[in-house]
Amino acid sequence: MKTGRRILKLLWILVSIVVVLVGWFIWSAHRVPIQRAARTFSAPAMRYDLGKVLVVYYSSTGNTAEAAQRICAMTNGSLLEIETQEPYPAAPMLFVRAKLDQSNSKYPVLKTALPDFAAYDVIFVGSPVWWSSIALPMLSLLSHSDFGGKTVIPFCTQGGGSGDFFLRFAREARNAKLAEGIAFSGVSKIAPSDLDQKISSWLSAIALKASRSP
Q1: If I label 165, which of 5, 53, 60, 136 is the partner at 20 to 30 A Cα–Cα?
Q2: Residue 67, number of CB atoms within 10 A of its CB
């Protein structure tokens, strides 16, 4: 009797967990990712002259957007957010759809018009890491873009490693003169001043290398 009751109890717990998980997935499928609240940053302590700069990015929850905005502020650049015609769902359904689309090389249709890359000297391109690679909206942008020999600098935000992000970017960025990119881990957990310092150190190295180029 006791064994039977234990089995029934375990089955009830298992069914309850499955119901909760299914409900969570169904709920997330009808919601878009929530952008976290923007944080307050001080004016940049340093600004870097890299010529005419464009910072183009895709962000699902706000982390990549925050990094892009700080890069833009420190380079006096122009900011362009990439949006899709059909928004991606919130997590956890986001990960399911992203994995399926990634496996089938299915890229979303972009709502944002492609920029005129020829009008800029340096183009920063930012994306979150999805399933150890570039987020599909940014892959969609890259598949339709030709950088025409411009300097292109990738950056990504992630919580569990950048995977093949930079290798894939190097393959997909057509006619780009690539400069060293950077991966930001756990952006929302980094203090604004520390995030600025990390970006500043990176930009300083880029500017120094550019000044030494013939």
Answers
A1: 53
A2: 26
Question: What integer best gives the mean pLDDT of the chain?
Answer: 87
Question: How many of the other CB atoms lie within 10 Å of CB of 18?
Answer: 10
Asked if omega into 92 is within 30° of 0 (cis), the reply is: yes
* Residue among 57, 66, 70 nearest 153 (CA): 57
Q: Which pLDDT band, with edges at 50, 70 and 90, does 197 fall under? A: very high
184 three-class SS: strand
Catalogue the long-range contacts made by 82-86 (C-beta closer than 8 Å, 24 or more residues apart): 82/56, 82/57, 82/58, 82/110, 82/112, 82/137, 82/138, 82/141, 83/58, 83/110, 83/111, 83/112, 83/137, 84/108, 84/109, 84/110, 84/111, 84/137, 84/140, 85/109, 85/110, 85/111
What pTM did the predictor assign?
0.85
Q: 35 pLDDT exceeds 50?
A: yes
Q: All domains of the chain, ordered by start, with CATH?
A: 31-212 (3.40.50.360)
